[in-house]
Amino acid sequence: MDVETPSFNGDELFGLFDLSLLAKAGMHEWLAESLNRCTHFFRASGGSVFLVDEDGHIRLKVKSGAQCRIPDAAEVEIGVGVAGTVLLDGAPRIIGDPTAEPFLVGKGVVKRSEVDSSMVVPLLGPSGESVGVLNLSRAKGEGPFDEHDLSNAAKLGAHVALAVTNAQLVNLLQSALDDRAMKLEQLQAVLDSVAGSVYVVDGAGRYADDTVPEGAVGTAAACVLEGVRITGEPQEGRAYAADTDSTWLLNAVPLSFGGAVLTVQDITQYQRAQNDAARLKRLAEIGQMAAAIAHEIRNPLTGIRGAAQLIAADESFAGEYSKVIEDEAVKLEALCSDFLEISRPLRLELGSARLGDVVKRVCGLWRPEFEHANVCLTLESAADDPTMTIDVRRVEQVVHNLVKNALQACKPGGRVGVKVAEGSLSIQDDGVGMDEETQNRLFSPFFSTKPSGTGLGLCNIRRIVDAHGGGVDVWSEPGKGTRFEVSFGKNVA
Ligand code: ADP
Ligand code: MG
Q1: What is the mean predicted confidence (pLDDT) over 135-144?
Q2: Which of 234, 266, 298 is the last residue of a domain?
Q3: 77: pLDDT confidence band, cut at 50, 70 and 90?
Q4: Does residue 441 carry a pLDDT above 80?
Q5: Could you tell me the distance, in angstroms and rounded to a whole number, from the CA of residue 462 to the centre of ligand 1?
Q6: Residue 140: is it exposed, middle or buried by C-beta count within 10 angstroms (0-12/13-18/19+)?
Q7: 227 CB less than 6 Å from ligand 1?
Q8: Is residue 452 assigned to a domain?
Q9: Which of 1, 183, 424, 436 is 20 to 30 A from 35 via CA?
């Protein structure tokens, strides 16, 4: 009988490296076709391929002919069974009767009637690493595999391994490309939905697109991008284009491989709405203040008018009522001074002091008043009270106003607790408390709920604390009490 000599120039073997099917139909189809070429080449009627997966397990990928009986979830374990042994020593084997193979004795391997001869070929990568196993089998009447087949199979194994590795890489590349295409599409959808323009800039400051921001926006863009380059942090900026009376918001975010993404948004409408709101708020405040001033001026004016009328009716009243006129005029003058005081910018005279010392001094001055009103005043001061840079006289005014308000809010038997810690102070009372309306207007000049209040105390407190770079927080509940917390910023000397 003429035995056909297998040749590696055969079309079926070169076809192993043709990956067009892989792109068209996927990895499984390509493997099935490759197995088909191998079985055909070796005149086998059955075959299977096991491949190493990413998790290191060697799993069945395709099967044909008599080997279709192998369960789909079959795995090969290195050193176990025929395939495992072949992978361990790297030598292909022909197996006639597996039960007669010395290395399989006691491994529970059975001879399958449909397989007469099988050839197990390790698929080893270029550095000898296991890629998988190729099994080929012939049924009865097809003749057993011989040494010639085995020597060809040994050479073929490396080629099949290379083809499989290629296919796996192509597969990996394809899914990475698909993934990238999907991400690009998602990104495009995000960019399309963003109001404004988005620019990508490389590490050298070059714009990826032909469109480049111009004019005032361009200048601001260069500025924020330079900020990103120097700090490596996201930067924000604004630009005002006088020619179009428009305002722009710029945001630049650094990219890990250099460069940045710059977004430019037209916020003209938003900016105008904000300016309008601020103007309206200012107007409302001026209106409230004007009403409060008018109210304050009316009382002394009524007094002056009444006195003047009395003097006009009877000159003998002149001596007595000119004094009333003078007193009321003095009140008006004081009112003007107060008004001028709050409208002038505050100039601090800074010095070094411990907040605890300042608070202690003011509380000491107030003690007699508290005792007289039967209100208990307690003072707690932390031992590590730092020396701060503050305007001592102004800070005294702050404490003075807060302590006075707290006392005025308390009934006899009430309590006021003052605490100083880490450059801030809190004053808590169990007095009348404040409703929301009062809390909202607290810091407005001339706002007072007291019959003889000036409504300037808290307004001045805010000015002084602001000038120190600090802040004021208020908690209050009607009937329960009020707590003011004041910090003087980071002025630790
Ligand atoms: P005035 O004390 O002259 O009324 P302020 O500016 O000091 O002016 O206070 C404004 C208003 O805030 C007070 O009239 C009062 O209604 C409210 N207020 C301030 N402190 C307290 C407090 N501790 N408890 C309750 N209400 C307070
Ligand atoms: Mg007050």
Answers
A1: 87
A2: 266
A3: confident
A4: yes
A5: 13
A6: exposed
A7: no
A8: yes
A9: 1
